[in-house]
Amino acid sequence: MSTRIRNVTVLGAGVLGSQIAFQSAFKGFAVVSYDINADALEAATKRYDTLVTTYTEEVPDARDGAAAAALDRITLTSDLAEAAENADLIIEAIPEVLALKREMYTKLAALAPPKTIFATNSSTLLPSDLKDATGRPDRFLALHFANRVWQFNTAEIMGTADTDPKVFAEVVEFAKAIGMVPIALHKEKAGYVLNSLLVPFLNAAAGLAFGGYADPPDVDSTWRIATGAPLGPFQMLDIIGLNTPYNIMVHGDAESQQIAAWLKENYIDKGKLGLAAGEGFYTYK
Ligand code: NAD
């Protein structure tokens, strides 16, 4: 491995935290997976068991027991001091609530050794919103993964003006070492690269259907045929699940709020939440 990072701690073992921890363990790192209490750790254990199955089915290198072996490299704990004490890198994937994250960094600042790099997986907060709570702004940045990390393997890396370039470079190497394609942002941008592109794109598609200009399947056909993309925006919305775009749009401008209301009335309130629900803009078997 070309990275000096060996011991990785992931805070929060929810949807993304469990994936980041598992992917790191799968690539050979010793991982501590922290969550708040016994119930959360029990839920995490189930997530990890599901990930063993998913990796075995979907990741070619994970056959022959490699996914099960990854699980042996993960230690679960609800003791934050224990989670922090040996970490070279702590990746924080706790709920997207500013006060909660700041409280976590304040605690970590006292518990982690000086060598430890802190990285946030936050999707919507900027690292600048958190850096003063870390007590080490030079060793703090954002490392942002996409859901289904083993398949959609981008890692967007975004520091603040205070982030030490050597720390940034070290995290780029770590991202490569766990099989991600590192995407370096040169300065802070809400939404990073991916969501800066995706959110306006999906909003524009929803606006076409909401405004009665074209039906979702025709919008999708246009995008697929004219650009060669494998999926249209409504297919993507079904995969993401309609609650997430709804929650973004409901806080947007007047038109976004109207689109949010349309999504709620015509889809969400009817249980058409997307692929996972069996129906969204399309019906799935
Ligand atoms: P989640 O709700 O699935 O998981 C959050 C986990 O944090 C839970 O296991 C919860 O028990 C735990 N938790 C709650 N309070 C905590 C605390 N005080 N300290 C430690 N752990 C605590 O959330 P998620 O979807 O995994 O999102 C986590 C972070 O990852 C967020 O910042 C989110 O923006 C980001 N993210 C999510 C996605 C996604 O698609 N879900 C994608 C990229 C980034």
Could you characterize what this model shows?
With 285 residues, this protein is of the alpha/beta class. The chain contains 12 helices and 8 strands. Strands 3-2-1-4-5-6-7-8 form an 8-stranded mixed sheet. Helix 1 (15-26) packs across helix 2 (38-58) and helix 8 crosses helix 12. The longest helix has 21 residues, at 38-58. The mean pLDDT is 96. The structure holds nicotinamide-adenine-dinucleotide. Nicotinamide-adenine-dinucleotide binds next to helix 1, helix 5 and strand 6.
What is the terminal-to-terminal distance? 43 Å
Adjacency order of strands in the biggest sheet: 3-2-1-4-5-6-7-8
CATH superfamily of the largest domain: NAD(P)-binding Rossmann-like Domain
What's the CATH class of the largest domain, please?
Answer: Alpha Beta
Tally the helices.
Answer: 12
**Biggest sheet statistics:** 8 strands, mixed
Care to count the β-strands?
A: 8
Residues in helix, %? 40-55%
Q: CATH topology of the largest domain, anyone? A: Rossmann fold
What is the overall shape? globular
Indicate the proportion of strand residues. Answer: 5-15%
User: Could you say what the CATH architecture of the largest domain is?
Assistant: 3-Layer(aba) Sandwich
Mean pLDDT: 96
**Which blocks of ≥5 consecutive residues have pLDDT under 50?**
none
The SSE order reads EHEHHEHEHEHEEHEHHHHH
